[in-house]
């Protein structure tokens, strides 16, 4: 039965077709035509115009001028710049916006920019918040979506993340939230996750860390939920959302390869299911790293497969930069009877670098010798 559960067919990790960049999309329009185009104004004239009329730096003006030479009337772009200036954009914000996506200057001021700008302001964005939003995600202005559709997407994100500043942060991480109707994927996926017992806090955290998980087709997420349930991961577990993410991220071939690897290391099918239920993130670790960590850990006294099944989070740590050097330092301290009690392997691995150094290296810096010095250098710790 466990073998059947483990070998369920997984859906490919990529359900999205490759999306061309905004500039690539724009290249399909006449102003980016590969046909020989008459340059209306020399670059130097446009550069001087941007410096004199809009206070651009020499560097930004030169880069922007190269783009503007492709336009029939570059001064129409000046109207776009004036619009942003009148609405509170600072020089820094304006330059950042243009550098990140010069296609903004080719957008229609009245039919696109003004409509989207006013619509987003109506959602409660101040001029400064709106400037920050557009600098973080200029695709708001350049994507060929209506103002109403863009505003609807931003409104939905407001309701999910709770603040205008967090909407900006999220779109800076991933502007795919602007590409389609969120009612068909994001919102149903979030509702399904809530029904699975995933908290609003976890949803919010993972939305920033793994945004594309939430943008998958709803039927794909439903199928991942079914598989996670079948593998016995409890819905009240904080690991549930990580189980969804890991299953969605892996192809069938990769999943089968991971199962084979664990079996070759001596894990039974029940052991593998237990590892998945405890720490599904382990299955996102590369096979090379799993091999390195398991080989090192199994070389230590009192560490066997049963121990690793109980503490699968150890596979996440680096064998070379964390586990081995820390165990060497503890070995030196124990050999000199400097520790009253041997710390557990899991405790040693979970401590961050600073905590480990302050507890086990600095107090014994004269005793740990070269092993301690090498660790200090490798971690970049300087506060002696």
UniProtKB/TrEMBL annotation:
GO terms for biological process: chloroplast organization; DNA-templated transcription termination. GO terms for cellular component: chloroplast. Coiled coil: none annotated. Keywords: Transcription, Transcription regulation, Transcription termination, Transit peptide. InterPro entries: MTERF, MTERF_sf. It comes from the Eukaryota. One of its GO terms (molecular function) is nucleic acid binding. Gene3D superfamilies: Transcription termination factor 3, mitochondrial. PANTHER family: CGI-12 PROTEIN-RELATED, TRANSCRIPTION TERMINATION FACTOR MTERF6, CHLOROPLASTIC_MITOCHONDRIAL-LIKE. Belongs to the mTERF family. This is Uncharacterized protein LOC110779381. It comes from Spinacia oleracea. The gene is LOC110779381.
């Amino acid at each position: 039965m466990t073998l059947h559960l483990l070998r369920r067919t997984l859906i490919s990790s990529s359900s999205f077709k490759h999306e061309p960049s905004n500039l690539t999309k724009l290249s399909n329009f006449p102003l980016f035509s590969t046909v020989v185009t008459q340059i209306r104004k020399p670059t130097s004239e446009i550069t001087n115009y941007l410096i004199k009329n809009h206070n651009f730096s020499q560097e930004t003006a030169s880069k922007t001028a190269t783009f503007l030479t492709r336009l029939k009337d570059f001064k129409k772009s000046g109207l776009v710049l004036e619009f942003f200036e009148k609405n509170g954009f600072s020089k820094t914000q304006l330059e950042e916006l243009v550098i990140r996506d010069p296609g903004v200057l080719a957008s229609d001021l009245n039919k696109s920019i003004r409509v989207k700008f006013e619509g987003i302001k109506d959602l409660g964005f101040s001029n400064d918040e709106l400037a920050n939003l557009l600098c973080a995600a200029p695709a708001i202005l350049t994507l060929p979506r209506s103002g109403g559709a863009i505003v609807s997407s931003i409104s939905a994100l407001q309701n999910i993340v709770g603040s205008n500043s967090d909407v900006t942060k999220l779109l800076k991480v991933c502007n795919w939230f602007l590409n389609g109707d969120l009612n068909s994927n994001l919102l149903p996926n979030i509702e399904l996750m809530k029904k699975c017992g995933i908290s609003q806090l976890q949803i919010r955290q993972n939305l920033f860390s793994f945004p594309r998980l939430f943008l998958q087709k709803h039927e794909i997420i439903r199928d991942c939920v079914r598989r996670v349930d079948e593998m016995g991961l409890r819905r009240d577990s904080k690991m549930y959302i990580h189980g969804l993410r890991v299953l969605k991220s892996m192809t069938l071939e990769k999943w089968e390869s991971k199962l084979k690897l664990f079996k070759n290391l001596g894990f039974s099918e029940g052991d593998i299911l237990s590892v998945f239920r405890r720490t599904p993130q382990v299955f996102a670790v590369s096979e090379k790293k799993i091999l390195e960590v398991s080989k090192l850990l199994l070389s230590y006294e009192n560490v066997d497969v049963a121990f690793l099944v109980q503490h699968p989070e150890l596979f996440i740590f680096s064998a070379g930069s964390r586990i081995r050097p820390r165990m060497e330092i503890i070995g030196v301290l124990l050999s000199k009877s400097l520790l009253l009690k041997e710390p557990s392997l899991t405790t040693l691995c979970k401590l961050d670098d600073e905590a480990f150094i302050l507890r086990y290296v600095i107090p014994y810096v004269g005793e740990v010798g070269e092993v301690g010095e090498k660790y200090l250098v490798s971690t970049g710790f300087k506060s002696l």
